[in-house]
Glucosyl transferase (Gloeocapsopsis dulcis AAB1 = 1H9), 339 residues
Amino acid sequence: MTQTLQQQPTPSSIEKTPLVSVIINNYNYGRFLNQAIESVLNQTYQNWELIVVDDESTDNSRELIEAYQENLTAIFQKNAGQGEALNTGIAHAQGEIICFLDADDYFHQDKLMKVVAGFCEHPEWVQISHCWTSVNTDGLPIGQGSTILNQGNVRPLLLRWGRYAMGITSGLAYRRAALQKALPIPTRKAAAADTYLTVVVPFYGEVGCINEPLMFYRIHGNNKQARNDNLSYLIQEREDTANFINQASANVGLADRLNMRQDVDYRTLTALQQGNVPWTEKMEIIWLSLRESREIGRSAKDTLERLLRRSICTLFPSEGRAVLRLGLRGYLRFKLFGQ
Protein backbone atom coordinates (compact mmCIF):
# COMPACT_ATOMS: atom_id res chain seq x y z
CA MET A 1 0.00 0.00 0.00
CA THR A 2 1.44 3.36 -0.98
CA GLN A 3 1.65 5.96 1.76
CA THR A 4 2.66 8.89 -0.43
CA LEU A 5 0.25 11.80 -0.23
CA GLN A 6 -0.39 13.12 -3.72
CA GLN A 7 -1.22 16.71 -2.84
CA GLN A 8 -4.37 17.98 -4.46
CA PRO A 9 -4.60 21.61 -5.53
CA THR A 10 -5.82 23.74 -2.64
CA PRO A 11 -5.17 27.40 -1.85
CA SER A 12 -1.63 27.79 -0.57
CA SER A 13 -2.88 30.10 2.13
CA ILE A 14 -5.93 31.96 3.28
CA GLU A 15 -6.18 35.54 4.38
CA LYS A 16 -5.45 36.18 8.04
CA THR A 17 -9.04 37.09 8.91
CA PRO A 18 -11.10 34.86 6.60
CA LEU A 19 -14.86 34.67 6.81
CA VAL A 20 -15.93 31.59 8.76
CA SER A 21 -19.34 30.06 8.05
CA VAL A 22 -20.90 28.26 11.02
CA ILE A 23 -23.75 25.92 10.08
CA ILE A 24 -26.19 24.76 12.75
CA ASN A 25 -28.51 21.93 11.77
CA ASN A 26 -31.54 21.68 14.02
CA TYR A 27 -34.46 19.35 14.51
CA ASN A 28 -36.61 19.80 17.63
CA TYR A 29 -33.75 21.02 19.84
CA GLY A 30 -35.41 24.28 20.78
CA ARG A 31 -34.52 23.73 24.44
CA PHE A 32 -30.80 23.79 23.57
CA LEU A 33 -30.74 26.01 20.48
CA ASN A 34 -30.38 29.31 22.31
CA GLN A 35 -27.09 28.22 23.90
CA ALA A 36 -25.75 26.98 20.56
CA ILE A 37 -26.53 30.30 18.84
CA GLU A 38 -25.19 32.40 21.72
CA SER A 39 -21.93 30.43 21.68
CA VAL A 40 -21.36 31.65 18.11
CA LEU A 41 -22.43 35.22 18.83
CA ASN A 42 -19.94 35.36 21.71
CA GLN A 43 -16.88 34.20 19.76
CA THR A 44 -13.67 36.17 20.28
CA TYR A 45 -13.09 35.90 16.51
CA GLN A 46 -15.57 38.22 14.85
CA ASN A 47 -15.49 37.60 11.09
CA TRP A 48 -18.15 34.92 10.85
CA GLU A 49 -21.60 34.24 9.48
CA LEU A 50 -24.14 31.95 11.10
CA ILE A 51 -26.54 29.80 9.09
CA VAL A 52 -29.25 27.84 10.90
CA VAL A 53 -31.00 25.13 8.92
CA ASP A 54 -34.17 23.89 10.61
CA ASP A 55 -35.34 20.47 9.43
CA GLU A 56 -39.08 21.08 9.91
CA SER A 57 -39.05 21.11 13.71
CA THR A 58 -42.36 20.70 15.53
CA ASP A 59 -41.30 22.37 18.80
CA ASN A 60 -40.59 26.07 19.43
CA SER A 61 -37.42 26.12 17.33
CA ARG A 62 -38.80 28.39 14.62
CA GLU A 63 -39.73 31.12 17.10
CA LEU A 64 -36.29 30.96 18.71
CA ILE A 65 -34.51 31.16 15.36
CA GLU A 66 -36.64 34.07 14.16
CA ALA A 67 -35.81 35.97 17.36
CA TYR A 68 -32.18 36.05 16.15
CA GLN A 69 -32.99 36.97 12.55
CA GLU A 70 -30.67 40.01 12.61
CA ASN A 71 -27.70 37.82 13.60
CA LEU A 72 -28.08 34.83 11.32
CA THR A 73 -29.40 33.40 8.09
CA ALA A 74 -32.40 31.17 8.80
CA ILE A 75 -33.43 28.38 6.44
CA PHE A 76 -36.58 26.36 7.08
CA GLN A 77 -36.83 23.24 4.96
CA LYS A 78 -38.91 20.09 4.79
CA ASN A 79 -37.61 17.27 6.94
CA ALA A 80 -34.85 15.51 5.01
CA GLY A 81 -32.24 14.57 7.62
CA GLN A 82 -28.83 15.83 8.70
CA GLY A 83 -27.07 15.26 5.38
CA GLU A 84 -29.51 17.37 3.39
CA ALA A 85 -29.53 20.06 6.10
CA LEU A 86 -25.74 20.33 5.83
CA ASN A 87 -25.89 20.36 2.02
CA THR A 88 -28.35 23.25 2.22
CA GLY A 89 -26.23 25.14 4.73
CA ILE A 90 -23.04 24.71 2.71
CA ALA A 91 -24.82 25.88 -0.46
CA HIS A 92 -25.68 29.16 1.30
CA ALA A 93 -22.29 29.60 2.99
CA GLN A 94 -19.85 32.26 1.81
CA GLY A 95 -16.90 31.56 4.11
CA GLU A 96 -13.46 30.19 3.24
CA ILE A 97 -13.73 28.04 6.37
CA ILE A 98 -16.83 26.05 7.30
CA CYS A 99 -17.63 24.78 10.79
CA PHE A 100 -20.53 22.59 11.85
CA LEU A 101 -22.46 22.81 15.10
CA ASP A 102 -25.20 20.42 16.19
CA ALA A 103 -28.04 22.34 17.81
CA ASP A 104 -27.67 20.54 21.15
CA ASP A 105 -23.93 21.35 21.43
CA TYR A 106 -22.11 24.66 21.84
CA PHE A 107 -18.70 26.21 21.14
CA HIS A 108 -15.93 27.42 23.43
CA GLN A 109 -15.59 31.18 22.92
CA ASP A 110 -12.11 30.82 21.35
CA LYS A 111 -12.99 28.04 18.92
CA LEU A 112 -13.15 30.07 15.71
CA MET A 113 -10.01 32.03 16.55
CA LYS A 114 -8.00 28.84 17.05
CA VAL A 115 -9.46 27.10 14.00
CA VAL A 116 -8.59 30.09 11.80
CA ALA A 117 -5.07 30.18 13.23
CA GLY A 118 -4.68 26.47 12.47
CA PHE A 119 -5.70 26.81 8.84
CA CYS A 120 -3.55 29.93 8.35
CA GLU A 121 -0.47 28.24 9.80
CA HIS A 122 -1.00 24.98 7.90
CA PRO A 123 -2.04 25.51 4.27
CA GLU A 124 -1.84 21.74 3.73
CA TRP A 125 -4.70 21.10 6.16
CA VAL A 126 -8.14 20.57 4.61
CA GLN A 127 -9.88 19.46 7.81
CA ILE A 128 -9.38 20.27 11.48
CA SER A 129 -10.61 18.14 14.38
CA HIS A 130 -10.41 19.22 17.98
CA CYS A 131 -11.13 17.75 21.40
CA TRP A 132 -14.34 18.32 23.33
CA THR A 133 -15.84 18.34 26.80
CA SER A 134 -18.88 16.16 27.44
CA VAL A 135 -21.66 17.88 29.42
CA ASN A 136 -25.04 16.80 30.75
CA THR A 137 -28.45 18.22 29.89
CA ASP A 138 -27.80 21.26 32.10
CA GLY A 139 -24.38 21.93 30.57
CA LEU A 140 -22.37 20.63 33.54
CA PRO A 141 -19.09 18.87 32.61
CA ILE A 142 -19.17 15.09 32.98
CA GLY A 143 -15.99 14.08 31.17
CA GLN A 144 -13.58 14.61 28.30
CA GLY A 145 -13.92 13.20 24.80
CA SER A 146 -11.04 11.76 22.81
CA THR A 147 -7.74 13.44 23.63
CA ILE A 148 -5.70 11.82 20.86
CA LEU A 149 -6.60 12.80 17.29
CA ASN A 150 -4.71 11.92 14.13
CA GLN A 151 -2.92 14.54 12.09
CA GLY A 152 -1.27 14.56 8.66
CA ASN A 153 -1.90 12.07 5.86
CA VAL A 154 -4.52 9.65 7.18
CA ARG A 155 -5.27 7.98 3.86
CA PRO A 156 -3.17 4.89 4.71
CA LEU A 157 -5.22 4.43 7.91
CA LEU A 158 -8.49 4.78 6.01
CA LEU A 159 -7.41 2.28 3.37
CA ARG A 160 -6.11 -0.19 5.94
CA TRP A 161 -8.60 0.10 8.81
CA GLY A 162 -11.50 2.17 7.49
CA ARG A 163 -11.03 4.76 10.24
CA TYR A 164 -8.70 7.08 12.12
CA ALA A 165 -9.02 9.18 15.27
CA MET A 166 -11.06 12.27 14.41
CA GLY A 167 -13.49 14.71 15.98
CA ILE A 168 -17.29 14.55 16.06
CA THR A 169 -19.64 16.78 14.05
CA SER A 170 -19.41 19.91 16.23
CA GLY A 171 -15.64 19.44 16.46
CA LEU A 172 -15.00 19.55 12.71
CA ALA A 173 -13.93 22.43 10.47
CA TYR A 174 -13.17 22.43 6.74
CA ARG A 175 -11.35 24.45 4.15
CA ARG A 176 -14.12 25.28 1.70
CA ALA A 177 -12.07 24.54 -1.43
CA ALA A 178 -11.52 20.93 -0.32
CA LEU A 179 -15.01 20.43 1.11
CA GLN A 180 -16.61 21.30 -2.22
CA LYS A 181 -14.81 18.37 -3.86
CA ALA A 182 -16.69 15.96 -1.59
CA LEU A 183 -20.16 17.41 -2.18
CA PRO A 184 -22.97 16.64 -2.18
CA ILE A 185 -23.20 14.65 1.03
CA PRO A 186 -25.20 11.46 0.27
CA THR A 187 -28.59 11.53 1.95
CA ARG A 188 -29.85 7.98 1.39
CA LYS A 189 -27.07 6.04 3.09
CA ALA A 190 -26.83 4.45 6.53
CA ALA A 191 -23.53 6.20 7.28
CA ALA A 192 -23.92 9.63 8.91
CA ALA A 193 -23.03 12.88 7.19
CA ASP A 194 -20.00 13.53 9.40
CA THR A 195 -18.74 9.99 8.75
CA TYR A 196 -18.91 10.64 5.02
CA LEU A 197 -16.99 13.91 5.24
CA THR A 198 -14.30 12.63 7.60
CA VAL A 199 -13.45 9.68 5.34
CA VAL A 200 -13.68 11.48 1.97
CA VAL A 201 -12.21 14.97 2.48
CA PRO A 202 -8.82 13.60 3.71
CA PHE A 203 -8.19 12.25 0.20
CA TYR A 204 -7.81 15.89 -0.91
CA GLY A 205 -5.15 16.92 1.61
CA GLU A 206 -3.89 16.48 5.14
CA VAL A 207 -5.95 16.69 8.31
CA GLY A 208 -5.00 18.75 11.33
CA CYS A 209 -5.95 18.66 14.97
CA ILE A 210 -6.12 21.03 17.91
CA ASN A 211 -5.59 19.20 21.18
CA GLU A 212 -7.83 21.52 23.17
CA PRO A 213 -11.51 21.07 24.11
CA LEU A 214 -13.09 23.78 21.95
CA MET A 215 -16.63 22.41 21.96
CA PHE A 216 -19.14 21.10 24.49
CA TYR A 217 -20.88 17.87 23.50
CA ARG A 218 -24.18 17.47 25.28
CA ILE A 219 -25.20 13.97 26.36
CA HIS A 220 -28.93 13.79 27.01
CA GLY A 221 -31.93 11.52 26.66
CA ASN A 222 -32.34 11.79 22.89
CA ASN A 223 -28.79 11.13 21.81
CA LYS A 224 -28.26 8.45 24.48
CA GLN A 225 -31.22 6.61 23.00
CA ALA A 226 -29.77 6.93 19.51
CA ARG A 227 -27.59 3.85 20.06
CA ASN A 228 -28.66 1.19 17.65
CA ASP A 229 -28.73 -2.59 17.98
CA ASN A 230 -30.11 -3.11 14.47
CA LEU A 231 -27.29 -5.26 13.13
CA SER A 232 -28.33 -5.06 9.49
CA TYR A 233 -28.34 -1.27 9.68
CA LEU A 234 -24.98 -1.10 11.46
CA ILE A 235 -23.38 -3.50 8.98
CA GLN A 236 -24.77 -1.43 6.10
CA GLU A 237 -23.28 1.66 7.73
CA ARG A 238 -19.81 0.08 7.66
CA GLU A 239 -20.32 -1.07 4.06
CA ASP A 240 -21.37 2.45 3.04
CA THR A 241 -18.30 3.88 4.74
CA ALA A 242 -16.04 1.44 2.90
CA ASN A 243 -17.66 2.41 -0.39
CA PHE A 244 -17.08 6.10 0.37
CA ILE A 245 -13.41 5.43 1.09
CA ASN A 246 -12.86 3.30 -2.00
CA GLN A 247 -14.65 5.74 -4.30
CA ALA A 248 -12.61 8.65 -2.91
CA SER A 249 -9.42 6.65 -3.41
CA ALA A 250 -10.38 5.98 -7.03
CA ASN A 251 -11.31 9.63 -7.57
CA VAL A 252 -7.77 10.79 -6.71
CA GLY A 253 -6.13 8.09 -8.80
CA LEU A 254 -5.06 5.63 -6.11
CA ALA A 255 -5.09 1.89 -6.74
CA ASP A 256 -5.46 0.92 -3.07
CA ARG A 257 -8.85 -0.13 -1.69
CA LEU A 258 -10.12 -0.95 1.80
CA ASN A 259 -10.55 -4.68 2.41
CA MET A 260 -13.61 -5.18 4.62
CA ARG A 261 -11.82 -8.02 6.40
CA GLN A 262 -9.63 -5.31 7.96
CA ASP A 263 -12.61 -3.29 9.25
CA VAL A 264 -12.76 -4.54 12.85
CA ASP A 265 -16.23 -3.17 13.58
CA TYR A 266 -17.56 -4.82 10.42
CA ARG A 267 -15.99 -8.13 11.43
CA THR A 268 -17.42 -7.76 14.96
CA LEU A 269 -20.92 -6.97 13.75
CA THR A 270 -21.03 -9.79 11.21
CA ALA A 271 -19.74 -12.24 13.84
CA LEU A 272 -22.48 -11.05 16.22
CA GLN A 273 -25.08 -11.44 13.50
CA GLN A 274 -23.97 -15.02 12.79
CA GLY A 275 -24.10 -15.78 16.52
CA ASN A 276 -21.47 -18.48 16.77
CA VAL A 277 -18.31 -18.11 14.72
CA PRO A 278 -15.18 -20.29 15.02
CA TRP A 279 -12.74 -19.45 17.79
CA THR A 280 -10.10 -18.62 15.20
CA GLU A 281 -12.37 -15.85 13.91
CA LYS A 282 -12.99 -14.55 17.43
CA MET A 283 -9.29 -14.43 18.25
CA GLU A 284 -8.47 -12.74 14.95
CA ILE A 285 -11.02 -9.98 15.64
CA ILE A 286 -9.52 -9.34 19.08
CA TRP A 287 -5.99 -9.32 17.66
CA LEU A 288 -7.00 -6.96 14.84
CA SER A 289 -8.58 -4.61 17.38
CA LEU A 290 -5.26 -4.31 19.22
CA ARG A 291 -3.31 -3.80 15.99
CA GLU A 292 -5.78 -1.17 14.79
CA SER A 293 -5.49 0.84 18.02
CA ARG A 294 -1.70 0.64 17.95
CA GLU A 295 -1.42 1.87 14.35
CA ILE A 296 -3.97 4.64 14.85
CA GLY A 297 -2.23 5.64 18.08
CA ARG A 298 -5.25 5.51 20.33
CA SER A 299 -4.97 6.23 24.04
CA ALA A 300 -4.91 3.31 26.47
CA LYS A 301 -8.45 4.25 27.57
CA ASP A 302 -9.86 4.27 24.03
CA THR A 303 -8.01 1.06 23.20
CA LEU A 304 -9.43 -0.72 26.24
CA GLU A 305 -13.00 0.47 25.64
CA ARG A 306 -12.97 -0.67 22.01
CA LEU A 307 -11.36 -3.98 22.92
CA LEU A 308 -13.94 -4.67 25.64
CA ARG A 309 -16.90 -3.77 23.43
CA ARG A 310 -15.69 -5.88 20.52
CA SER A 311 -14.67 -8.78 22.76
CA ILE A 312 -18.06 -8.97 24.50
CA CYS A 313 -19.87 -8.85 21.15
CA THR A 314 -17.61 -11.52 19.68
CA LEU A 315 -17.14 -13.89 22.62
CA PHE A 316 -20.60 -13.53 24.18
CA PRO A 317 -23.04 -12.88 21.32
CA SER A 318 -26.04 -13.20 23.65
CA GLU A 319 -24.80 -10.03 25.40
CA GLY A 320 -23.70 -8.21 22.25
CA ARG A 321 -26.96 -6.47 21.41
CA ALA A 322 -27.18 -5.09 24.95
CA VAL A 323 -23.70 -3.60 24.54
CA LEU A 324 -24.74 -1.96 21.27
CA ARG A 325 -28.02 -0.70 22.72
CA LEU A 326 -26.69 0.60 26.06
CA GLY A 327 -23.12 1.45 25.13
CA LEU A 328 -20.20 -0.19 26.92
CA ARG A 329 -20.44 1.95 30.05
CA GLY A 330 -24.20 1.61 30.28
CA TYR A 331 -23.91 -2.14 29.82
CA LEU A 332 -21.26 -2.49 32.55
CA ARG A 333 -23.26 -0.25 34.90
CA PHE A 334 -26.34 -2.39 34.34
CA LYS A 335 -24.42 -5.63 34.92
CA LEU A 336 -22.64 -4.36 38.03
CA PHE A 337 -25.32 -2.23 39.66
CA GLY A 338 -28.57 -3.10 37.88
CA GLN A 339 -29.03 0.48 36.68
